[in-house]
């Protein structure tokens, strides 16, 4: 059962992840046009390695809300961040170990996905 107080935070986190996904797909399309299929595949993998842990964190972090659950809120954020980092490390390790990638597009999109949460709140706020 989802807490009513968590809905705005969870909705914002999912909107942010959706915006990051759309921006990533646009960048992948640009990479495909200018550098070809192999670079676009590498960029896609870089985006996936960054986006999947963000989705997990959005789910985990906004599980609890309210004054009575303040300890659970803090614990869910901390455990969400730790698990997000672990998932990201595993995905990054598996990708680098088992998939042949072009490093520049892969890490460029990965870094973009990691940096976008800093500016997407301003974009989402302007749309409201």
UniProtKB/TrEMBL annotation:
Q: What is its main location?
A: membrane
Q: Which cellular compartments is it found in?
A: Cell membrane
Instruction: Tell me where the transmembrane regions lie.
Output: 12-37, 43-62, 83-100, 106-124
Q: Which UniProt keywords apply?
A: Cell membrane, Membrane, Transmembrane, Transmembrane helix
Membrane topology per record:
Multi-pass membrane protein
Could you identify this protein by its name?
F0F1 ATP synthase assembly protein I
Origin organism of this chain?
A: Colwellia echini
Lineage, opening ranks: Bacteria, Pseudomonadati, Pseudomonadota, Gammaproteobacteria, Alteromonadales
């Amino acid at each position: 059962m989802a807490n009513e107080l968590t809905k705005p935070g969870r909705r914002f986190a999912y909107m942010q992840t959706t915006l990051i996904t759309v921006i990533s797909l646009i960048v992948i399309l640009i990479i495909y046009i200018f550098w070809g299929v192999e670079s676009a595949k590498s960029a896609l993998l870089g985006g996936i390695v960054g986006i999947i842990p963000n989705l997990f964190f959005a789910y985990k972090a906004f599980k609890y809300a309210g004054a009575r659950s303040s300890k659970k809120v803090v614990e869910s954020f901390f455990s969400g961040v730790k698990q997000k980092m672990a998932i990201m490390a595993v995905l990054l390790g598996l990708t680098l170990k088992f998939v042949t990638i072009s490093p520049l597009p892969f890490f460029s999109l990965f870094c973009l996905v990691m940096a976008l949460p800093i500016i997407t709140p301003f974009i989402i706020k302007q749309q409201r």
